[in-house]
Backbone:
């Protein structure tokens, strides 16, 4: 249960990080939040960037990172 909650929370952080990356230059608050989340989320997403190059200028590695997190959550759910 706790591990599931941690994975859910981390998934939310990844999602927020992606959204903020689109607007990080639009204001100090957004930029500050992005700077806090970046060292937490970027290392995980960068694992997937090594294998998934941008396609047409779009980076799909955060999407794959979220899918993997959800897959782990589903596996944990099956084990309980």
Residues:
């Amino acid at each position: 249960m706790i591990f599931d909650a941690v994975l859910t929370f981390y998934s939310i952080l990844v999602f927020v990080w992606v959204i903020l990356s689109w607007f990080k230059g639009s204001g100090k608050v957004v930029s500050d939040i992005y700077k806090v989340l970046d060292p937490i989320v970027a290392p995980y997403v960068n694992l997937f960037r090594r294998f998934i190059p941008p396609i047409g200028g779009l980076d799909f590695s955060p999407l794959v990172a979220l899918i993997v997190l959800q897959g782990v959550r589903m596996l944990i759910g099956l084990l309980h």
